[in-house]
Amino acid sequence: MEAEIPEMTVDQSVHDDVQDDTKADTVSSEDYAIVIEGLDKEYVKGVKVLDNISFKVKRGDIVGYLGPNGSGKTTTIKILTNLLTPTSGRAFINGVDVTKNPKEAMKPVGALIEVPGIYDYLTPNDLLTYFGKIHGMDKAKIEERILEVLAKVKLQDWQHKKIGSFSTGMQRRLAIANAILHEPEILILDEPVIGLDPKGIKEIRMMIKQFQRDGITIFLSSHLMHEVSETCDSVIFLDGSKILAYDTVDNITKKMTMTTITLSTLNPLTDDILAKINALEKIGSVERKNGNLILGFDGKPETSNAILTQLIGMGLKISCFAPEVANLEDYYVSVMSDEKGVNSI
CA-CA-CA-CA torsion for 338, 340, 342, 343, nearest 10 degrees? Predict the structure, then answer.
C-alpha cells in the first residue's frame, strides 16, 4: 500500500494549478532553451525586485545566475516556472510564453526551487511514484524511471528507506532525482548546493555535469562564486535587481589576470636592494606588507617569469614568489564597481 502524501504546496510542484492557453505567444527556440525579455517584478509599488531583466540561455549550456541573497534570483526562477507573475516583461521556455501557456511551457522542465519539502515518513519510491503520476507517467514507466534516477543520484540502495533517515546531501540528491524523473530537456535549480558540506557540493557538481552530457540545459542560481566557476559554462551577474554582466566563464577567465606578486627573501631588504627592485622595468610598484614585498605588474605569465629571472640575477635568495590570481569574486566586485550594465553573449 502506498504511503499517503499530503497536498503539495506551490513550491513543491511546478505543475499544479497551471492553465492551458492555446494562443500563447512564441519566440524562436532553435538555439535558446530560455529567453527572458524585459522582466520587471514589483512586490511593493515603486520597489522593483527585478528591473528590466533580459537574457538568453543557449541550448545545452550550464548557466549560473549569480548574486547575493535578495538580488532577485529566486524571483526570476519562480517567474520562469510560473509560480509568480511578472509585473511586466515575458519569459519563454523552448519558445513558449510561460505566463500565457504555462502547461505547455513546463512540459520539458524539471525544477528544484528553494529548499524542497521532504516528508520524513515516505520512501524515495513513495515520493517518486506520486510525482510520476502527476507527470502522467504510466506505472511501468514510473518504476523504470525510479530505478534510473536513483542510480543517477547514487541512492539506488535507499529506494525503500524512510527519507527521515537521510542526510541533507541525500535529501538534496533525492530532490534532484525528482526533478529529472520525467526526463526533462531543461533543469532549473535554485541554490542546489545550499547547506551542503564540501563532499555534498562536489557530488551535486558532478551530477550536474553528467546531466549536461546527457543533453540537458541547466539554469542554476547561486551565491557561491567558486562553485559557479567550477560548474557553469556562462555566468549572469545580478545585483540590485539588475543584470550587471553576462559572459562565458572562459572569457571571464581571460579577463582575470594576476596583478601582484608576493615576494620574500632570505636577504635583508636594504634600501639599496629595494631601489634595485623598484628600478626593474617589468615592475610597476613595490610595497612592504607583513614583512614581504608586494610587486605590481601587468599580470602576464611571461612578465612574471621575467621578473623572477631578474630577481635571481640580482643574487636574491628567494623564499617565496607568489603571483596572485584573481578569481570570479574579484571580477564580480570589479563589475559592480564599474556598473557596466548588460554585456550579452
Answer: -100
